[in-house]
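U., I forgot to send this yesterday:
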Amino acid sequence: PLIAYALDLFAGFGLTDTVVVVSGAHESVPETAAALAPPRLAVSVAEQLRPLGIGDAVTSVGSALDGRTVVVLAIDTILIGDVHPALDAFERAEADAGLLLHPTDRPREMGIAVLDGDRIVDLVEKPHQPRSNLAAVGLWMLRPAVVELLRRDPSIRADGEIDLTGTIAAMLTD
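Result:
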């Protein structure tokens, strides 16, 4: 199951605890996650009352994220290759957020980043006129400032979802 892949991936990153965010419709996920978790990874569960996007999933975790650096993985994301260099670079950087980027041939369907060196200078979700083909691939690394901004003043999409990528993009202009 994808949850097993995600838990193994996080354990491989060296993380020791994780929170699985579920909606009420997925009642078996807590037991499944606990059963599939590698021995060195503690798993807890938070409920997202209404599925209002990845940003809302992050805020659904509550105070467990206070003051912590957070790695967020969209459950349908499968990563191929070693992502440790990206995690290590984020740990060394002074950035509030880090994204994994990969070229795409569908830039109008994804969050697209524009780089200046290794720094993201523009980030747009599903742009009409993409300025690059570098897509955010479903793994976000967040310092506490991003988590607090999601709680306090998130970017809200037209469909009502709390937009994690949009919230990070707003930080680029501050």
